[in-house]
Amino acid sequence: MVWSTEMVVLMFLLAATVAYTGLAFRQVIQFKAGARPLSSLSDWPAISVLQPLCGAEPRLYDSLRSFFVQDYSDFHLVFGVRDPLDPAIQIVEQLKREFPERDVTLIVDARIHGPNLKVSNLMNMMAACRHPMIVVADSDVLAPPDALRSLAIKMNAPGVGAVTTLYSGIGTNGLASRLGALYINDWFLPSALVDLSLSGIDGCYGPLTAIRRSILDDIGGFPALVDYLAEDNRLGRMVRSHNHILSLDSNVVPTLVNALRMRDLFAQEIRWSRTVRNCRPKDHFLSVVTFPLPILIGLAAAVHTLLAAVGVAGYVALRMALSLAVSSKIPAAGRVTPLLVPLRECLCFAVWVASFCGSTVVWRGQQYRLSSSGRLEAVQRQDTVMVPSLAGRDNV
User: Fold this and answer.
1) Mean pLDDT computed over every residue of the chain
2) Which of 245, 248, 321, 382 has the least C-beta neighbours within 10 A?
């Protein structure tokens, strides 16, 4: 039997994507989420927790409260806003009244130091930071009660300069937020575990990061990050470039996905995708094997054979099995909705295609071009995707 070009491409793509999905399934099954080191510390370091805020997002009270109830002896909570009328201030004040025993500082400072306004906020907050270990937390994180203890134990290992955490997604309202959470849980998490198994940690993941203050100062502090969009990833790379170990905590921290509309979700994911495309172009191009369903369906329709149909159906079954594995092995990922998986995969593919159709984004009303290193350059262009703030990783 002579196969057509379409059939050859279909079989090759099926083989590649099944190989990836099988490896992802294995890594998810083997991952021990929340596994604790056997050791403890005789002298727990004092920690300053920095949380930049911007607006009263859905469930912001729950997110911030999760840090007020940490099972840790000595920590200082520092919150930062730019606008004295920011509604997040009311929530911080409410929590201060609820937990008067907590050491809390609120910084209101509108100074801008560079294009990344979140990092500008962190720079303004550093004046209140007084402890040798710093934890930077996004405002959409629902931290488990032992988050700070786990980070401190990991940080205590010889040579470790910073600790980062993987994260899961929880949709707060409607279909858009559920699809956003599904992407984090069923595409980001498995691909991150595969990447870790093949090449280790090359950067921080963002929502919850611990670093020694001395090391942060050594790499140039937050000013060294203020010109970059993916400041979390760059922070981890800089820690490694200064010959310090970047470690991964076993906690998978839940984060809230607050997208209200599909166009908001689509725009934000294009921003993420364009960031990866600019910083890791080869990895970004090859990532198509993680969401090939639209291509597989098109090729199967073109060749119109039973073998092609069975192959595509087998891939869909394997992808749904991966989703079930994620929800069972990583409780923070929540329940899976199998019928949404094919829809989510098609959306992933659409975002990937759109990421090649421009090089700029709009962040907080300003247009930026992303350089190959991820640096933000202010421009005025037409190939721009509007990106509202949808989650804590956008907070400034």
Assistant:
1) 89
2) 382
